[in-house]
Structures are given as C-alpha cells and as structure tokens.
Design goal:
Shape: flat
Distance between the termini: 38 Å
Largest sheet: 5 strands, antiparallel
Helix content: 10-25%
Number of helices: 8
Strand content: 35-45%
Amino acid sequence: MTAGCAALALMAVASCEEDRTGGTPVFEPAYEGAVYALPEGGEYNIVYRLENPVSGGTVSASPAGGCDWISDINTLVADTVFFTVAPNVYPYERQTTMTLVYNYSGADPIVFTVNVVQTEAKEGSTYPDAFTIEVPENDITATTARVITTCAYEDLTWFGNIASQVEVDQLLGGDKSDVEAGKSYINQYLQYLAEIYSMPLTTILPDLLFEGAIEDDFTFEGLSPETTFHPYAVGIDMEGTVLTSVYWGPEFTTKKPELVDVTFEVTVTPGVQNATISVHPSDPSVYYLATVMDNSFYEAGYTDQEIMMELIYQAQYAYNGDQDITIGGMLPSTEYIAVVFGIDIDQLVYITDMTKKTFTTNVSQQTDAAVTASMANYWSIEGLAGYNASYAFPTTNGALLGALDFEFNESATSLYWNVFQGDMTDYSADQLENFVLNYNPSLSYKGDPAEILFMDYGEFTAVVLPMDASGNYGTATAYLLSLTEESVSTDYTLFDEYYQALMNAQQSFAVPAKVSRPAAAEQKEVVTLSESSSLRIYR
C-alpha cells in the first residue's frame, strides 16, 4: 500500500510513493531554452514539471543517437533529470538533444526534447583564480569561525560555505584536488537543499547565491569543537549548474571547549512509550540538555563529544536546577539511553562530560482503548477558493481537503494514525500496527480538533492505533474512506468551523520537552541516527 495524501498545516500523511489522480498528466520542461555546458563538462540537469502523475508511471531520458559525450543519466530524483557531460576537447561547439519520456498505462507516452549545447574548448572558460578565501586565526573559537571570501568576476554567481573533515573524507574521498569529485559534492549539496526545504533549486538559489565581484564576510556558528573544516567557494548559475571547479581555502580547526567541574545525578522512570528523567546538578546555575537516544550513534562510531554537538545542533530546550523531564515518542519494551550534559547557552557548546543511563521501556499491557476514524466531510479546493480566496491552496498534493474525525471511547486518550491509499481493511491488526508505526505516524489526543488533509477522489484507509493514559496500545484498526464526486460537501461554513478550530489549536499548542533527531532527519522526540546525513547546512 502507498500513502496518497499530505496534511494541511504542519501535519504529514505517510507516503510510500507518488500516486495521484484527478486529470490528464502534464509533462513538460519547467524552463524554456537549452542547457549550456562548459568545455570542461560535468554534471548538469533538466528540470521538468509533472502534474497529475499516474500510479506506476515512469520518467526516462536519452540523448540523440550517436551522441557519445552524455552519460550517467539519472531519473531517480523527482522533477529533475541529471546527466554527465564529458569534456569538450575540440575547438568547436557541439550540441545534441535530450529526449524525456513519461510512460504510463492507458495512453501514449508524453515526450519533449531539450537542446544541450557545449561550448568549444578554449583557455579561460573555467574562471581561473575566481576566489580568495581567508580565515583569521583570532576569529576561531570552539564553535565559530569567521571566513572572508572574495570573488574576482562580475559576471559570476557563486556560493561560499565550509565542509567538515567527515564530508571531505566521505564525499570527496579525502582528495580536494579531484575536480570532478568536488563538483559531484556540490551537486549532492544542492540536491540535499532541495530535499530539506521541499522546494525546487530554482526557488532556493536566488536567496543563496551571491552575484559578481563582492566580498562575503561570514561567521559560521554551531561548529563542533576540535574539528577540522575546509572553506570553499564555487560558481553556480540560477538553475543549479556548477560553473567552476571548487576553490578551497585554508583549512582550520576549532578550539577545545573549556569544561567545568559539574556532575549530574540522573534517575530514569520508564513508562510504556515515555520516560521521566530526574536531574539533580551539583551546580544549579549550570544549564544542561537532557534527552533520550538509542544506541545507533555508538554503532556508527560517534564519540560522546560528537553526539553532544549533534544534540546541541537540534536542541529546543535547556534546563537548570532540579528538573523532572518527560520525553515521549518511544516504543514499548525497547532499550534507550538517557543523556545529560552541561552546555554554554551563548556559545552552544558542551561544558561537561556526558552522563548516561541505560533503561528499557515498559511492556505494553492489554487495554480496551479504541478510536474510530471517519471522513464524512470533504471539499474541493476549487470550490473553497471560489468561496474564500484565502482557501486557494495548491492542488499539487490533492484536489480535495478532507476533515479526518476521531471518536474516542472512555479508555482511549490518544492515538497514532496514518492515511494510506487503497483498501487495507483486510489486513491483520499486527500488520496494521506495523504500518502505522513505521510510516512516520501522526499523534493526536482526545479533545484535539479534526485533522484537515489534502486528499483525492478514490479509496483510502485511515489506520489508527489507540492508546490509554498509561501509553498501552489498543488494537490497530483500519477504516475505509471512500471519496466520491457525488459526496463532495458544499457547506463551506462548516469548513470555516473545522479550519478555525485547527488554527486555534495550533496557536495554543505547547511543544513538549524534546531534542529532535540529527540534521536533515525528521524531527522526533527520541534521537536516532538511521535517517541522518553526512551533509550539514552550516549557513
């Protein structure tokens, strides 16, 4: 089964793959014009627009017959085709066409072509001596460093950043002189930005890139202590094409933080899906972080110091004095590690060693907690926009907005839930529990307003896993949601009520104490490593 909808206003419905309906597919280039490649070649891309995709549809791409200088075509990234252009060693321009095809069942493929033009080989086409990079020694601390980058060309758009030693080792093979590896690293970083911000590169780059011969004087913050970094600059155009090789500045190493003589007495009281960490610091004036993680950091070879900086990077709260801190989002009968350490809240760096306590959450007990789910009210976005222009939401995630109502019995106080495309009512309770827990479930509580979700016409299944006040699981249950054109609501004042209740609840919502997952991973209340990335957005 695949998830087939996305949530409105900070809610997310699980998605295994894109599966939309509601009109004839539209497949076309996102931008007019050719792709222009530099003589030295490299990785380039074609951005396309795909509307109303069909389940099982595929995108393919190929150059014109006889073209031997385009290779490594990659269509795995949504909305973008990547390919490699070989260096042009000839004293004349060469060009070909890339043909992009969208194949889907029930109709002929949709095809369009884009010209690829590579300029002739000539000296000076890669912006020699494009950048100078300085790192003043006096401006390096345990967590910050000042980097001054200057561009020499008025017609060049560019970007400056730093890479950690881990990135250089893992993503460039430790060889900064490898031009192609450097460009590949930049392309990975650009793709990473697009994924993190869920926006096309062409939307991100105007705010990211500098234009022309200017100086960028920037202080990087939140760096790991005693860590080597490598500043760099690179030319990039507004469509994400890398224009130059990567220019590397002088590497630098952040300083060692000054530790203080403070200890923490830590007691853990586990629940079924949460734990309360009781902390007593020897100095009540010292700020500290307290959270829960699993063992995956250590399995991946991270040190305590590296783990503390990861936690600080994503921290939302710091405490001082005696505290009882409840952390949620855990699984029953599972081993976790409670961690506590002091921090400097101004420099954002650890100032004590890490105190650790291993514990196991309690076994889930049998409960009669039950929750029913229904979607009796859903509206077309087009109709809502005609009623109120502020409801003109994008339809890329679905043509409908549906209100997902929950009804709790006396024992139930909360639930995990997901909405999947298709009919899952024949699945066993154990299978449903596995689905709801392993596809980024949403959490709702008794008394919360109905969720409003982007939906489409067709059959969907709401899978619910109810819980009682102690966190014990009830029986996972599937409820079929059948959305038809005949049953679309035109009671727009009712939508007003649903929408206002959701907005009011979000404005008054208080986030519970937690530290989120490492950079780029989905935020959860228990830190794990499995979805983290080697890349880091430092600016």
